[in-house]
Amino acid sequence: MSGFPELTSGHRPVGVVSFAQYDNVRREDAHNEVEMLMPVVAEVFGSIGITKDDVGFICSGSTDYLVGGPFSFVTALDAVGVWPPRAESHVEMDGAWALYEAWVLLQEGEIDAALVYCFGRSSPGDLSEIMALQLDPYYMAPLWPDPTSLAALQAQALIDSGRASESDFAAIASRARRSALANPKAQLAYDRSPEELLGEDYEVAPLRRHALPPLTDGCAAVVLAAGDRAYELCERPAFITGIDHRIETHAIGARDLTRSPSTQLAGEKAGVATKKVDQAELHAPYAHQEMILVDALNLSDDVALSPSGGALAANPMMSAGLIRIGESARAIWSGQADRAVAHATSGPCLQQNLVCVLEGV
Amino acid sequence: MSERCAVIGIGQTVAKSKREDVSIAGLVREAAVMALEDAGLSFADIDAVVVGKAPDMFEGVMMPELYLAAALGAVGKPMFRVHTAGSVGGSTAIVAAHLVASGIHQRVLTVAFEKQSDSDAMWALSVPQPFSSPLLAGAGGYFAPIIRAYMHRSGAPRDTGMKVAVKDRLHALKNPYAHLHLPDISLKMVEDSIMLWDPLHYLEACPSSDGAAAMIIGSEKAAAQATSDTGRPPAWIHGMAMRSEPTMFAGRDQVNPQAGRDCAADLYRQAGISDPRADFDMAEVYVPFSWYEPMWLENLGFCAEGDGWKLTEAGATSMIEGGDIPWNCSGGVLSSNPIGASGMLRFLETALQVRGMAGEHQVADARRALGQAYGGGSQFFAMWVVAADKP
Amino acid sequence: MTEPVTMMAATTRLDYVFTAGVAQSKNLHGLEEGKFIGQRCPKCKKVYTLSRGSCPVDGLPTDEIVELPNTGTVTTYCVVNVPFAGQSIEIPYICAQILLDGANLSFMGLIQEIPIDQIRMGLRVEAVWVEPDELGPTMASVKYFRPSGEPDAEFDSYKEYL
Questions:
Q1: DSSP 3-state percent helix, strand, coil across chain B (nearest 5)
Q2: pLDDT > 90? residue A296
Q3: A-interface mutation test, from B50, B95, B102, most A Cβ less than 10 A away
Q4: What is the reported pTM?
């Protein structure tokens, strides 16, 4: 045991002690959600030698519209086996927010460990149609704008602001997919130069194919443990020293799409800038969004950006955020980083953002 | 370790079958503004917003809290969305309260809603899925066989459910926010209503409502400030608990679910309750179908297993009959059912009671009350205890 | 003054391709052959019908296949008399929980060929399948259940499956 880091958020040290994710794939058509989650839950417990009986709280994240039926989180619970009855909750949000809920409960000291999991598939329906239903039902949804078109508006605004060019987007995509070559869970990894990528056609100008995330089916799980329990389960826990999330207005026209004030504020509250950051896993589904997030978090040039390849390498809905936290924790466990920033996003054009700072001792 | 926290502001809309005068944003804002006014606060004083509602298909908007951020004053703040099926209104309040109990925030706005008229809830619950047969016909079809099993096990007379249906509607006449106001309600009227899901008559089932509920949860300091500003007392939270169990498994007791019993046991331990019938002055319990009153009386330990119907028959749960443990003085879910908000309305009504602000349906000198919500196939439970005195 | 807009219709149609998964595929192939398939949990040994692939208690894959008979017991029921969109059966009808012999979990099924006022808990029933050439990998392969003519089951034999 080597003590605990200083906390910016909360008063009880809580660490990420285990992480597992499904193989991110374009279309998982052999297994249903329960069958996808079962091995992930088994791994997240098994790798640290505990069972569901060792956690005092379970929280999950998912959304019904991806599955195409109400109460999809209910059947997913059968992957854990909540018997005898458990303290359990669900958010209609990315698993990163489920982790936040569990972290809050752990602050109170009644429980020492929690399971967080999430799942999301892009393959059952037409994701670009489904995501349109996430928009203002009166003024936007009836127009059925797809998420790539909205992201393209943002990318164009960024170019028009003079802070970015299409070459920058290609450079980000090239780097992310090259990093992903070392990530066995990555769905999309390649070694292609920015120049080559710029030869691709536009999907929605100014976004070419490389600037878009892949469509992914996946799920993930994390175990959190507090205080001494964290050291019992993990040699070098990735302690959450800061965590915060903020939302912006939904109205795209009322926002400066080239900035992410919610990320900036969450980053400040989570204490990102208080010490040196070794790496940042950013949930930027579209390449240009990484630039907006780097600005908002004021990350310096020596910060390693999304070493896993980020959401450009695999973008399972409702899970890609929690996976950023899991990947950051993995870097702490291995000693590859001492201090890592993880970020999750939700809503059109980075409307809502969560920032989590993880530290090893 | 956890900090004291209290309900310092309460707001609710009138529940109606169709609120055509407001958008979804207008509906939730109505409840939120009322809660802020009650607490003597404005949106600027709020640290975080926690929203709850039942399945998104009820309105046809995916993750509607994103669109509601500005209407609820959440821009620049943390905003959170809970969904735990029918218990969601209760679990949303609990998630909000933990944000204060953990010491993270001082004042949290929590809102739950459903605008069922914007879509077709029966359709949303019966979306055709290829691996199941289309038999259910909504929630009533799911719960009616369980009710039959309860009747068989307990030997309850057939009119117990009808008695609850009358009692809760009589209570609703005292609550201006209730959806159903049926001044002529009688056992005969219930019995003469169509048998929708035998053994359940139409009038033994909850309505389908548009409505929203909101509360401000504050820290001890925030509560003191609110009382000094408004002269209105807080409702102190003495305990809160959630439990879940699987929908189906071999040997599952759906009539008296273990998750409900465990949840109550944890809650009573926190709040120091040893005899719920004696220790509580009233309870607001999620009774969407009449028979769930006797079933939950047993599940919540107000009597021995098999005896719940005897309390109901004896009038113990009726304000009108001067019962010792009035249940659902607001009229309950049987009188208003904006699904996502229904659980929060139970929690909110307990807070109104211990603050002495329930108006015509106020239980005299209510000091301590139990709020309960359940959801899914009687598998998700959320409960809290509020009291006039500080814990 | 013009009337306020109180409602706008926003018709939505979304098509989904559902993934049955390994376990449900086995169940559905069974139905295609006119058979009920159960799956046993390796830990608690309970047999689940219409399993999604896991034991809800243990969270483990229910890998062992058990062929189940055509007969079972009505554990409880209700009579549906409410019309709703998408309904394909004439009301009133009996919707019952049916526990197949040898299974540890009941499922919901339609009961026919019995007057509505004679339905009861403990009634013994058998499945009526569609014509062999109409069998498919769907629950629609089971037309309904009907009384099998056996004496009613004792309450104790199914009281744990209510």
A1: 40, 20, 40
A2: yes
A3: B102
A4: 0.97
